[in-house]
Request: fold
Amino acid sequence: MARQFDHMADVEAFVTIVDKGTISAAAVALGTTPSVLSRAVARLESRLGVQLLRRTTRRLSVTEAGTLYLEQARSAFGLIADAERAIQGRGGELSGTIRISAPTSYGHYRLPQLLRPFMEQHPKVVIELSITNRNVDLVDEGYDMAIRLGELADSGLVARRLDESPVCLVAAPGYLQRAGTPQDLEQLAAHACLPFTLPSTGRQAPWLLRVDGRDVDWLAPPRMRVADDVLGVVSMAQQGLGICQTYRFVVEERLRNGQLVEVLPALCDRSKPFSLIYAPHRRMSAACRALIDSLAPA
Reply:
């Protein structure tokens, strides 16, 4: 009796060719040759009785039938991947790969110490960590989870609070010796302020202050605008270029060793939350579920 799905390698070849854009690129990804993949697609088209790809010397395109088949094939492969994730680690040692996205500040200064116990306990689990200030699309980009800053909009994603992170204003001792130490908000406005430009909006991120018992989101008059990497404001401040606001966990060591000095602590009695998010409908591996429970216990 012939096997019903002995053509799955041909289906994988077709999907990979479309995803990579060329047969040559797909051959590199699958560790084979273009001629092997061309024959695989030809066999699949013969089996289905339709043309899936249009191939010319200059370009490759997907036919209408190919587009329909591609959607269903991707869905089928997704279900198989979900099934594998769902059973990985059951009744044995956890294994598999977990993809995480984290913002720069958290990825450098908080996440490593949170990941260490999990990675020591589960040596067969591989973590693929993307540290970026861009909000990735979990589903479309294939991430299992992400860490996000601030209050989250209702996106349909599950969110677990990691922590509340206090903010502070800091400057280098040399800068304060030259420019003086501000004593109130009015004096702060006259200093060289180093705000950050949010990559998601292109707008300046307000400084979180508390003035006379009220929370104030203050737009600091910029002496320099820093974009893309939020840790850049700390580097600029440490070199004596002005005052910045950042999370205390980023600068606590530099405050202890005197590289930076806290400014106007009474105005900075505020914090922002970090949360772990993931898609509720996606079947997660045992390793993913264990990491979520490790990072953000319910």
The domain at 166-271 is CATH 3.40.190.10 (D-Maltodextrin-Binding Protein; domain 2). The first strand starts at residue 53 and ends at 55. The chain has eleven helices and 13 strands. The first helix runs from residue 8 to 20.
